[in-house]
Amino acid sequence: MSKKLFIETLGCAMNSRDTEHMIAELSEKEGYETTTDFKEADLILINTCSVREKPVHKLFSELGVFNKNKKEGAKIGVCGCTASHLGKEIIKKAPFVSFVLGARNVSKITEVLHKDKAVEIDINYDESEFAFKDFRSSPYKAYINISMGCDKSCTFCIVPKTRGEEISIPDRLIIQEAQRAVERGAKEIFLLGQNVNNYGRRFSGEHEKINFTELLRRLSKVEGLERIRFTSPHPFHMDDEFLEEFASNPKICKSMHMPLQSGSTKILKDMKRGYSKEWFLNRVEKLRSIAPEATISTDIIVAFPGESNEDFEETIDVMKKVRFDQIFSFKYSPRPLTEAEKFENVVDPAVASERLSYLQALQQQIIDEKNASRIGEVHTVYFEELNADGYVSGRSDNNLMIKVKGSEELLGTFADVKIIQANRTIFTGEILA
Ligand code: 5AD
Ligand code: SF4
Fold first, then answer.
1. Is 86 in the pocket of ligand 2 (CB under 6 A)?
2. 25-to-5, 36, 106, 133 alpha-carbon distances in Å
3. 50 burial level (CB within 10 Å; 0-12, 13-18, 19+)
4. For the residues of 345-369, what is the DSSP string, one character each?
5. What pLDDT band is residue 43 in, cutting at 50, 70 and 90?
């Protein structure tokens, strides 16, 4: 009987890719098979996120539940960003945890497994030449890391402390990984990094100096590859060359994530984002002028220390001007090891909640209007998921989620679909004959 692995993944797409890699390592070298029931698992892993405070609090109660109900002799490991950040404190607080493995060290999963109470959290560890295994949770699209870590110093963000300094992965490894994914049937790749359009800033060894735009050009030549997506780019690095490549290269999907964080130039300065409200709007304008079909999503933090009503109004002003297609919005959460943790002028929590609700209500209204206006549009959909209700869903080039009546034969294929109905999270469409 094979050993069973239960793994819970929190946080971002990079964590999902790290999870895929750990599953591959544990299955190849240790014979583990995954299970969705932690009670029957021999190994329970939590791949954690520490970007906001709430999930970190939840970690310890969750660990308690796992420990109480786990199979006898099962091991529990804590991986990911909270592992990097809290290190051996995790074992102090939860002594039943067998090992702690940081976000920068996932390639060491089979090593720590056999060392009781191992804590591997070196953020300078270099995994950039380490080929991530080809296990994919979806056969249709492949997540591929292009860089690790982050060299920015946004004052609210803990990530540079959990994932370390930025190192780009050599393009030959990325291209090979894309080729292998295509050979196995994937038609789409999803490039991952904390700051993808800063690609090429630093390699661990000798490497030809190429930037993200050049990497995109090279990847788009991979035969059989139809679609390239990426996340997250940084508005500061959105130069004309990059936006023009994005607009003109037919393999690059026309959806851009542009994390605004705040619309107030003063707050952006305090956040050390490196751009102003005007620069952000200018980049949106440039993008829309050359790729009008592109959808734009964003991240916004409300109630950063010192955010006045006027500052918040600046954010609302950007929302009204840009009319984003999707917004991920958060209340500012003070994080250890960050500069902003020590900032004064903390915003009253009631005001923070009010601002978040106001912003989210405005966005709902914008989305309802935008979605209704899309009825009748025709999009090429790449089908990836079988839904329970006799529908199959997938994404348009510009990242709209669309479902049609159908069955599994549609999976992994493209079809032109006319949108006939819109609701808030998914469109319904009909395949054009
Ligand atoms: N508080 C609230 N939101 C945060 N984010 C990052 N750090 C914090 C924080 N301390 C948000 C940013 C980022 C997204 C991944 O999480 O908007 O883009
Ligand atoms: Fe969370 Fe950031 Fe780590 Fe991703 S990189 S898991 S978002 S803290």
1. no
2. 12, 18, 10, 7
3. buried
4. -PPPHHHHHHHHHHHHHHHHHHHHH
5. very high
- Which of 18, 19, 51 gets mutated to test ligand 2 (max ligand atoms within 8 A of its CB)? 51
> 32-34 and 3-9 as β-strands: parallel, antiparallel, unpaired?
parallel
- Delimit the domains of the chain by residue range: 3-120, 378-431
Tokens of 240: 């004309």
Same fold, 3-120 and 378-431: no
Ligand 1 atom closest to residue 328's alpha carbon, by position in its atom list: 17
Nearest ligand for residue 52 CA: 1
- Domain 378-431 class in CATH: mainly beta
Q: Would you state the structure tokens that stand for residue 312, as one six-digit string?
A: 């918040």
**Average per-residue pLDDT for the chain:** 96
pLDDT band of 82, cuts 50, 70, 90: very high
The pLDDT of residue 276 is above 80: yes
49 lines ligand 2 (CB under 6 A): yes
Give me Rg for the CA atoms of the chain: 22
The neighbouring-strand residues paired with 415 are 381
Q: Does the predicted TM-score (pTM) go above 0.90? A: yes
Pocket test for ligand 2, best of 8, 10, 12, 337 (most atoms within 8 A of CB): 12
Residues in the chain: 433
Ligand 1 atom nearest the C-alpha of 299 is: 17
CATH fold group of domain 3-120: Rossmann fold (3.40.50)
Instruction: Give distance in angstroms: CA of 80 to centre of ligand 2.
Output: 8
pLDDT in tens, 216-245: 999 999 999 999 999 999 999 999 999 999
CB neighbour list of residue 268: distance below 8 Å, 6 or more residues apart? 261, 262, 275, 276, 277
Mean pLDDT of 393-411: 97
